[in-house]
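Worked problem 6 (solution included).
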Amino acid sequence: MFQIHSYNEGLEFHKQIVKCWFLRKLKGGKSYTDGHDCNDSNCLVCRSKEQKEQNIPAKLKVFLLKNNNIDRLVFGFPGELISLAKEFEKIKFSKKDKKKVSFFFIKTGYENWFQKKYSKIFLDKLNRDTCTYCNRNYTLNLVDSRTRAELDHWFPKEKYPLFALSFFNLIPSCHSCNHIKGSPNINWEEALNDYVHPYLIEKDQNFKFGFNYGASLNDYKVEISVVKNSKMEKTLKANNLKEIYSSSSNKELKDLIELKYKYSDNYIDILINKTFNGLLTEEEIYRMVFGIEITEENYHKRPFSKFKHDIIEELKKIK
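Solution. The predicted structure is:
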């Protein structure tokens, strides 16, 4: 799991369109007495034809318009979302209204509005180039919906439909990781105490890739070094990261190991510290020679960056 360090542009875009969308759906536009218009000539929602949603349960409308609940829902941090959910759960909805609530957030809001109209712009502004969970696959944001990045809901939207449009619950991911993350046994109310959330930077929750030889010198196995029983270890297991890398990264690992042993014991060191030293920065050398980024906040820019960087650093130590 690779933490998201920079997201301000995406957050500011999300704040405006989603908050205005909720207010339009709850109050309507200018044609209503208390209709909503943010008066920003650049607002994509208030300049659109979005109007009042007539099928919203009255209790939901009261809850969303209470105090600053829309702000909390749209851009509240993950812990704030759980607090909001606990308040929301106290409301007694009929079975019919529960279905309406779920439909409003997941179908009307996320799938039929946000995902169709604004997910591409949102992903462009968030500017994540590879999957947040695996860093193996480019999350190319192309026009064709079949080839763009997906947005995983960290708190599952099936359990928490309320969070379907919450910024800190939307995680750019590849198709594979979006469908394997998590476990039905996770206690989501306590999940922030047990797992690392991509938007919450926890400096003491780290891991490193490594390798071991298998049955022969040509058989390599991916290893991951992480503190036992830590939040990061639980997170990596939930995301199946070791299994993913073991099944698809052997060629990357094999190439790096052979690069060291086929040429000379210090070939990598020569490339980095002598051949290009003084001509290129360390970051430029790694980018040009190995096709990776070497700083944590930039790992997302190129696939396998952390994996290759960790392996290279380990190989440099071997005499």
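Discussion: The mean pLDDT is 88.
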